[in-house]
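Page header: ASSEMBLY MODEL / two components / 1096 residues total.
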Amino acid sequence: MGSNNISILLPGVITFTGLTLVIFLVAYGTSIKAGKVKPADAIRYGAPEKDHSSSMSIPVTSLKNLSIPMILGVKDILSNKRQSLFLLVATSVTAMVITFSLNLNNSMNMIGKNAAFLGYDSSDLLITSEGRRFALTHEDTMKKLENESNIDIIIPGSFLTNCSIIDEKTKKSKTIMSNVFDGDMNSIGMINIEGRHPENENEVSLALGTSRELNKNPGDTVQIYIDGVKMNLLVTGIYQSVNNMGQGFRIQEAAVKIANPTYEPDSYSIILKDKGNIKDYVSKLKSKLGTSLNIDMTREVMEEQTRGIVSNFGIMVAMIMFIFTLVCFITIFNFTSINIHHNKRNYGIYKSVGMTSGQIRMSILYRIILITLGGLLIGIPAGILGAPVLLNLMFSSMGISEFPYLVSTYITSFVVTLCMAIAVISAWIPSKRILGLNPRTLIVE
Amino acid sequence: MKKYFKSSICFISSLTLLIGFSMGLINTNSAIAAQNNNLTELDNYLKKFKASTPIPGFSVVVAKGDEIVYSKGFGEEVIGLNKPMTENTSTAVGSLTKSFTAMAVMQLVEQGKINLDDPVIKYIPWFRTLDKENSDKITVRMLLSNTSGMPSIDRWINMPDTSEDAMEKGVKQLSSFPLNRNPGENYEYSNEGFNTVGIIIEKVSGMRYAQYIEKNILEPLKMDRSTTDISKFDELNAIYGHNSGIVGAIPASRYINTSVLAAGSELRASAENMGHYLIALMNGGEYEGKSILSKKSIDELWTPHVSFPAGSIRGISDDGTVNYCLGWMSSTIDGRQMTFHGGNTGTASSYTMLYPEKNIAVSVLYNLNGLDHYKYIGIYNVANNILHIVCGESINDSIIIDEKDPTLNSYELPGGQNSAYVGQYVSAQGDWRLQVSEDENGKLITSLENSKGITASMLDFASPSVAYMRNISNSYSVRFKITSDGYITGIEIQGLGNLSKLNNNMYENYNKAHSIENEVSFYIPRDYIIKWEENKCFIVNTDKKIEIQGEINKKGLNNFNEMVKSADYGDIVKENSEHTENIAGHLYREKSYLINRDNSLYQRILVYTEIGDLSICFSTDIPCSESGEITRNTILPIMYSLDVRHLQKNN
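Prediction written out in full:
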């Protein structure tokens, strides 16, 4: 595994190049088409002669059970395949982007439930020593916590800042932070993406970023300086963490005590027996433990830390949704308007053979709905299945190779409803023009 | 017969009265004798205590009923100045100030000007923390009982600010800090909470806090050696206390005081004066016939509002729980209901304890912040012992230290590694400096310096990186930042933060200059020479025609104001206002002038600092065209490298 440091400019460069390329290709393609216009045809018809070679005969018997507007809708789709394909792509992309954005936003909001994937523990409470007036010693704190009948598991720990790790290739050391625990890390819901947690004093698990940078995997040994003492530790697992750009390691307290026999933990991850009414319990515990210990609900701490990212993300998602919804609306609106203009003679004929304006409008609507349904069938699975791949790529440089992407049924239903609503509204409004079509006028024209 | 009977009755009655009177007299005499015995025992105990600890000086007052039964000082006011600490020595009492603030509030409650349960914003409409909605719920009672949820930020403790509205400025800064707890929910000790109360007192009474306390508490109680007004500290010859050294104490610098925390911790008082306060508290608010507060209000002050664990402090509660009342704490100690409050300022400490049931109270004032609690009994234990002795009881054994310091360890740094640690470490803001050096026995010692002076410690390593800075008061945990190839890049000090190690080669183009008695040293550029004349020095570069004059004096013999006044300024073109600046752990007062000399513009620079028991000043005139270069390469290096070694060696 090599380094995955991607420059912050890269996405910008890719976007700019991609956009320029698309604009160039579309403009080039259109200009080629314009070059093929025959002057005589242009003068006679005002537009290139319609190419009928692509038109497809409709098996009428297979549609006989459908209503006339629906048959006309299907006929329009099949007879204007290029236009329909273009619309299908537009609705697919819109459905995919909205599905992806909303589910990602939901995943970010629910990050507290997936703390372990991001390197946090899943304890109920996090008690940290503030070292202020009337401070309790570690021994006193443990006694008080052990006497609490509602506390099930206590895992003391701390965050060491004074560590460095050796890169065997370059022989250089790098300052690194470490999480120390005294006890079973599984019991507080910590997870690895590979291997297991360290259990002994000679073991360590590495954060994904560190593991990649040093090319160390479970079974390898790594040289780490803890409090100035060099230690050779066996890598037992790899975990992902959003902290410190995915850099760090986890060890047991016993390992730190080899380096520093006076080490004492300064935080406690707590699992409660009764998880109902945690706020009340925290308040009672605060009274018992005093001000030297800070008690937080772990989920709140994590949400607090990610709140800024989540709120920014919400704004970003709202903007993306708005832009794509608008583009989709304009596309269908334009498409329908142009289509009505092109086919007004046909619609005049339909009217003259007795179809009502409503039926004609419904035929237009059916066409759009059918295309949108197709778009949803492609876009939603793409948004759901493709997103994790994209996210894992995006977060890889931050030490996350498996982003906890949550798919919500409600959100998916919302996307279906939203896309259908956009399709119906953006097709129905311009189809009003059908009401103004007079068969007699069309015959005169 | 009848007459005979009457006479007999009279005789028997008289006899009974006589016997009763005699018995009473005997009882009184024996009580007096017992009390005298107790006081003699107390005197012996305190003498023994003084002899067994490195505290430079302390004073004690014991009040019983409406009289002071014992008041005395022990040791010296300031080490080296040969002035004994007496019961009249004014010293800082720290957080005991909170009880005075609470008393002031209760006076205003009695006058109907404050309601304890009204929100603070009723009195200070602009008051807020970061959490406006919650801070609007904070009441006066919550502030006084430390249940407002406001933390002790203590950010401004070392910030010199002598302005009258310093406290208000501090309270206004709370608007950018969040509450630690919901108002009224739990105990959260807060100096800032009491400062906020100080502002309420100012708004309601229309007087400055210090003025109110003086007029309504200190004057009626005849506490003439006490004040919360920092401009009067020098008038009272209030002492500045001591920092801790390795085996003894080090006189603190005459630091510039701050009024920011006035209502929470700025009272200076003598032990004898504290006796007046104790008498008033024990006698329903009356002192020598004058009432400053009702008994009902004193009961309110002592009513517990919230309880909290005593932490690892042994001997302040039988069950490990302490109550916070209003500016006072209470708990059961040795089976007796006690009311108390302590205070620490970093260079002094105090403890006051009342035993209301027996109407006995004691105040103990140290001119040191405290002592290592693994080696010596705490100030609260001393106060409790005093009460036991005065009551004729034996000293409770439970306060004898039976715990081992868990940080003690057997690790020794491998030989030859000391040099890697030796050097100067400074904080990013320049307010702290740590000097690591080797003593004559090859042991690493530290000198931690800030505006309050020098704290010296012995470095006891637990690993190549982790060490404990041990002195008579504390053992701070420190972590040296050490690279894998053995270089030390900085240090993290518990409670202080990170200090970066200065490059040991930064003075390679400089020579070290020492004062005649070798008490002060600093670096000067190699192209300068230095001449000493007693306590004065002249740092000269003949080529550049630059002369910097320096002067070292015992503290108090010179000060910045005198230096400014006495200087000959010549033709002043512009006078810049004085400012203070932290440079490598020392607080410098600086003033500069633009002067016209022989039709050339010069910058006159005056810098002054006080370190330990010394005041040090430098002054120079620099041609304006060269002022930047000379300040950067000559004056600043002198200020950065200024070192007062003798204090450390002696202690």
